[in-house]
Design brief:
- With 496 residues, the protein is of the alpha/beta class.
- The protein has 21 helices and 18 strands.
- The strands form 5 sheets. The protein has a 7-stranded mixed β-sheet, sandwiched between helices. A 5-stranded mixed β-sheet has the order 2-14-15-18-17. A two-stranded parallel sheet has the order 1-16.
- α8 packs across α17 and α10 packs across α11.
- Bound molecules: pyridoxal-5'-phosphate.
- Pyridoxal-5'-phosphate (PLP) binds next to α10 and β11.
Length: 496
């Protein structure tokens, strides 16, 4: 019986391993340092297995015979991408962990077309002088947000201050782009309320995933939080009583990921607008998932869009580029020209600005909105897909899987379910769908879900009550076949 010390002595050194014919060949082709690193990692793993008592003499001999292929596998892993495409069968359209909004084809093309070379990102081709990077998207935002907004404010509804003549003729809403909505909130608060107080309802002191907490962002911005009301009830009088000479801003935060129901009260936007007007204070709304298209068309009624908010007289709104907008990660601030201008000249803006890839993707996404080509934007397409269409695809996938002999012990059923818009849109924003429900005798639902995640490409599914659930709403139709093959491949194993 060999001792652990004996076993350790059987391990080659890194240098010896590098001279192994199977490995030296690799070191020649791939980079030398990657191979040396791989040898170290493989040997360290063996050492820790010996230490843990997992390897006896014969198991170690087996491991040693497979040493060069272990090094090969490790080099492959180290030199391949870690960021990979996955098939999202979870039915959550805006899944923050799965990179939120997939980009439109035009956005990808525009990135490829402009980012591989030089571009006029900050160069005015007419004058030959330095230009501004915002012009590329601000012109489109103006077009998408101006008309109705100006019209409404002329009519003076919702207590909005009347627009000045310059605001009207120049287009009253301007937009700037920063890295994400968290950055947008930081920039807006720092610009509008540094050294002063911001009034916000206790019912809106939200935490969004990834530790974005309104109170923390507020502290970093230099503004002081003035909480009013209670978690479930805040009245307009609570805001009014809190206003003092230090007050710089009224803030409304969209309750993105939770609902308060029961005994609740929240002032309407119109009331907040009127209060802001009375005290000559700016009103900002952090929308989170600002939509540029009318969600009512897909049956979602309680989610305010960017235009709804601006129309009702909110001075500044902030929202994400990669939530309901369906574009790249970005934070957008749209609102009164004079306020946005101040944010642009804040030195923080320079630190939070975005690069050419984001501008290219955003410009292409906004152009689709201008052309009203909503189908070009994947998340809008997914939201608009009917349950009937999803059922049809699910039936095909089910048939193709069942065509194989191997699935007798596997049950695949179609059941009614709901897709989730997600990504900080109204938590109640659900869309009816048809789910593929899979159960099999030999594997637990969790084991099956794990196998699906380790397939290539990985498939992300839901597990509920002992079944694996797949929602084709978030699977691209061109992925249906690959998904079927992955399911069949795993079905073969299930039978054993
Ligand atoms: C999602 C969200 C944020 C954070 O936006 P990011 O773009 O992820 O930084 C902030 N506020 C609200 C209300 C949100 O829903």
């Amino acid at each position: 019986m060999k001792t652990q010390a004996d076993l350790y002595r059987e391990l080659p050194s890194v240098d010896e391993l590098l001279r192994d014919p199977g490995v030296s060949d690799l070191a020649h082709r791939e980079r030398q340092s990657a191979t040396a690193d791989a040898c170290r990692i493989v040997l360290a793993k063996l050492r820790s297995e010996i230490a843990a008592g997992h390897l006896d003499e014969s198991k170690l001999a087996l491991a040693l015979s497979g040493l060069s292929s272990a090094v090969h596998a490790e080099v492959n892993r180290a030199l391949s991408y870690s960021l990979r495409p996955v098939i999202n069968a979870s039915g959550v359209i805006l899944h923050t962990n799965l990179a939120r909004a997939p980009l439109a084809q035009d956005a990808l093309d525009h990135i490829a077309h402009t980012a591989g070379g030089y571009s006029n990102l900050e160069f005015d081709l007419e004058s030959g002088e330095r230009g501004k990077r915002d012009v590329h998207v601000d012109r489109l935002f103006r077009r998408l947000l101006r008309k109705e907004f100006a019209e409404l404010r002329v009519s003076g509804r919702a207590g909005a201050p009347a627009p000045t003549q310059t605001e009207l003729t120049q287009g009253s809403v301007s937009t700037i782009v920063v890295n994400n909505n968290a950055a947008a909130v930081l920039l807006a608060l720092n610009t509008l309320a540094d050294g002063g107080e911001v009034i916000v309802s206790r019912g809106e002191l939200v935490e969004i995933g990834g530790s974005f907490r309104i109170p923390d962002v507020m502290a970093k911005s230099g503004a002081t939080l003035r909480e009013v009301g209670t978690t479930n009830r805040t009245r307009i009088g609570d805001y009014e009583r809190a206003i003092n000479e230090h007050t710089k801003l009224l803030l409304r935060v969209h309750r993105s990921n939770f609902e308060i129901s029961g005994f609740t009260e929240q002032p309407s936007i119109a009331e907040l607008v009127a209060l802001a007007h009375k005290h000559k204070l700016p009103l900002m709304e952090d929308l989170g998932s600002g939509a540029l298209f009318d969600l009512r068309t897909i049956g979602i009624n309680d989610e305010p869009g960017v235009l709804d908010s601006l129309r009702s007289g909110v001075h500044v709104v902030s929202y994400s580029g990669d939530k309901l907008l369906g574009g790249p990660q970005a934070g957008l601030i749209s609102g009164r020209e004079n306020l946005v201008k101040k944010m642009r000249s804040n030195s923080l803006f320079r630190a939070l600005r975005v690069d050419k890839l984001t501008y290219a993707a955003l410009e292409a996404t906004l152009l689709a909105y201008v052309k009203r080509d909503y189908n070009a934007i994947p998340v809008l397409r997914m939201m608009q897909t009917s349950k009937q269409e999803i059922t049809k695809r699910a039936v095909t996938v089910q048939k193709n899987i069942q065509a194989g002999e191997s699935t007798r012990s596997t049950r695949i059923e179609l059941i009614d379910g709901e897709s989730l818009i997600g990504g900080g849109s109204a938590p109640s924003a659900l869309l009816p769908t048809t789910l593929l429900s899979i159960t099999c005798e030999q594997l637990s639902a969790n084991e099956l879900a794990t196998r699906l995640r380790s397939s290539d490409p990985p498939v992300i599914a839901r597990v509920e009550e002992g079944s694996v659930l797949l929602d084709l709403r978030t699977v691209f139709p061109e992925q249906d076949n690959v998904l079927t093959q992955i399911l069949v491949r795993n079905a073969t194993v299930w039978k054993r």
